[in-house]
Recover the amino acids of this structure.
């Protein structure tokens, strides 16, 4: 993809209007539109459409939330980049900009009436009475550095893009037979007769192996009994944890550490509060009075404004966190309640105080041991870091590991290592990688560990993998042979019995205890039986006899007795059919829309400002910026 150093000025941006409006309402949380401005205001261009820096910042955060919901955990932005979320966000923005460009090329637009309707319908611009608040609209735009003309151009552009999008995918429908086939497959059930074949059905029970059988089994399964290749390694290791135990910590250092974390150990009185801003003081007072009179509630007003409680949440506030006037109002309460209106940078605001948290002080004596350990650990890491140059110089000058250990804080050690060993220094991934890669001719080099420690190693020799003699591991080999023998004999016995039942004999006449299992579902199971049995049942036909091995204690005989198609009148099946049909349609629509957007994007031409992308990611990632992969 082409890159550009300086974004060209374009006539308008292609940001999604509802996302912008959500940000405009109160600028609560996240990053404001001006947060990524400066001299560079765009991260990409498609034709004559711009992708703004603020758009990319929001798209990254939205993708972070989406992937977090899918994975069930809160993702850091570094993890988001590793999963390719930054590329997904940028591709989506480029597609949106491409469609906006296309609407201009084909002359697609909407009139002033449609623009006005959309703006008036947005809950972010509605007053207390529920109608459109002209002053609130102007105020919200001005607070975010926008003028009405530019904003209305955005609304017009997005409305036209939505029309084009609807035209592209509006007539898409998934094949009806596809959804019906999927639901029939998913909801189909089976009935079966199941019986266990145990060691009681084996002639002679467990058998004693001969010497020849054991020797043959050992050779055929050598990989299971081999002593793996061992690498004899000498290493020198400077470990902060070990070094910290030798460092004495003075009381004044503990006091300094305590003071450095005073914000954690000495928490001032705080309140948990929510904020709701208004265009003018009269509106704020009217709302406050209506809440006091029981005519409405704070929650109801938040909902009427198109917000959520998360949007207005201010978290924990201490007196020093806010202006003097606001602090005085918030901390004048003896119990939770409504405060305000109070003047803020967003205009007059009401605050709802939900909890009052008392001052909390943790005495230094309660955390002195913890602080001493932290001070010692920090000193040890700094000591290791300070000694790295000397260690490097010694190794570069040809000193042996033994000599380096004598002259520095490094400790000498030896290990016979293979990939199964993970104790001590072998618990570090960096050491395992180095141990696996080192060659006899390599000179020791300093390598950093994850905890700030360092090491260097030397390969003294390699002991190849060996197969012990049978007498050395006889007990292990006999146990493994017995397990394998029982499994094979049970499988053979089950196969024999299955053939006899298929020929006309009954389960009972063969000494088996059959169980009839009905309504087996594809993603279900059979009590006390391996999950693989269900897969085998659904892969078979009616009246098939199956002999399925399990372990060295049992095998299973299964006869498939019947197949039941899903009931067309079953409400659950009907709901699943609707869901599969909708999902298939959405997928077809997405594929079609993506193909159209990609073609439009290529035709219009596009460029990504890599420097602007990296700058935004550096801000969002707390200084981390690795460029925009794939851009």
């Amino acid at each position: 993809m082409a890159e550009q150093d300086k974004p060209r000025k374009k006539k308008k941006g292609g940001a999604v209007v509802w996302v912008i409006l959500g940000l405009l309402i109160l600028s609560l949380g996240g990053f404001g539109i001006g947060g990524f401005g400066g001299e560079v205001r765009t991260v990409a261009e498609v034709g004559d459409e711009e992708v703004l820096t603020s758009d990319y910042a929001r798209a990254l955060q939205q993708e972070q939330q989406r992937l977090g919901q899918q994975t069930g955990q809160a993702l850091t932005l570094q993890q988001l980049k590793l999963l390719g979320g930054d590329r997904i966000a940028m591709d989506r923005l480029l597609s949106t900009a491409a469609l906006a460009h296309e609407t201009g090329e084909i002359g697609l637009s909407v009139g002033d009436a449609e623009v006005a309707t959309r703006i008036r319908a947005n809950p972010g611009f509605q007053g207390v009475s529920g109608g459109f608040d002209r002053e609130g609209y102007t105020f919200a735009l001005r607070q975010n550095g926008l003028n009405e003309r530019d904003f209305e151009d955005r609304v017009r552009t997005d409305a036209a893009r939505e029309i084009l999008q609807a035209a592209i995918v509006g007539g898409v429908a998934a094949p009806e037979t596809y959804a019906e086939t999927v639901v029939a497959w998913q909801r189909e059930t089976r009935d079966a007769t199941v019986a266990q074949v145990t060691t009681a059905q084996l002639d002679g029970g467990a058998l004693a192996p001969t010497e020849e059988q054991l020797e043959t089994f050992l050779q055929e399964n050598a990989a299971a009994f081999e002593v793996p290749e061992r690498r004899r390694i000498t290493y020198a290791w400077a470990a902060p944890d070990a070094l910290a135990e030798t460092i004495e910590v003075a009381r004044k250092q503990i006091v300094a550490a305590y003071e450095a974390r005073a914000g954690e150990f000495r928490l001032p009185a705080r309140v948990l509060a929510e904020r709701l801003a208004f265009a003018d003081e009269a509106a704020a007072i009217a709302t406050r009075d209506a809440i006091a009179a029981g005519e409405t509630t704070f929650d109801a007003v938040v909902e009427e404004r198109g917000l959520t409680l998360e949007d207005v949440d201010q978290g924990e506030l201490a007196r020093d966190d806010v202006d003097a006037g606001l602090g005085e109002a918030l901390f004048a309460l003896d119990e939770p309640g409504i405060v305000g209106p109070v003047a803020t940078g967003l205009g007059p605001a009401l605050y709802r105080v939900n909890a009052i948290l008392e001052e909390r002080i943790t005495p230094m004596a309660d955390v002195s041991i913890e602080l001493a350990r932290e001070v010692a650990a920090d000193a040890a890491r700094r000591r290791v870091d300070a000694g790295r140059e000397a260690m490097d110089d010694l190794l570069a000058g040809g000193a042996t590991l033994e000599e380096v250990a004598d002259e520095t804080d490094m400790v000498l050690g030896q290990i016979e290592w293979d990939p199964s060993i993970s104790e001590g220094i072998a618990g570090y991934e960096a050491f395992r990688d180095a141990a696996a890669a080192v060659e006899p001719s390599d000179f020791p080099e300093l390598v950093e560990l994850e905890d700030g420690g360092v090491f260097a190693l030397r390969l003294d020799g390699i002991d190849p993998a060996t197969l012990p003699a049978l007498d050395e591991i006889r007990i292990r080999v006999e146990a493994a042979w017995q397990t394998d023998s029982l499994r094979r004999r049970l499988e053979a016995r089950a196969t024999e019995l299955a053939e006899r039942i298929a020929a006309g004999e009954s389960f009972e006449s063969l000494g088996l205890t059959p169980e009839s299992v009905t309504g087996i579902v594809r993603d279900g199971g059979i009590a006390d039986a391996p999950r693989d049995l269900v897969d085998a049942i659904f892969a078979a036909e009616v009246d098939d006899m199956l002999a399925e091995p399990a372990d060295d204690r049992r095998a299973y005989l299964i006869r498939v007795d019947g197949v039941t198609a899903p009931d067309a009148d079953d409400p659950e099946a009907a709901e699943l059919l609707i869901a599969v049909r909708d999902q298939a349609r959405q997928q077809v629509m997405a594929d079609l829309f993506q193909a159209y957007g990609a073609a439009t994007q290529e035709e219009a031409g596009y460029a990504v400002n890599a420097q602007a992308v990296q700058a935004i990611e550096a801000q969002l990632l707390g200084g981390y910026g690795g460029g925009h992969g794939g851009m």
Remarks:
- Confidence is low (pLDDT under 50) at residues 1-38, 622-631.
- Residues 222 and 469 are 11 Å apart (CA to CA).
- The first strand starts at residue 12 and ends at 13.
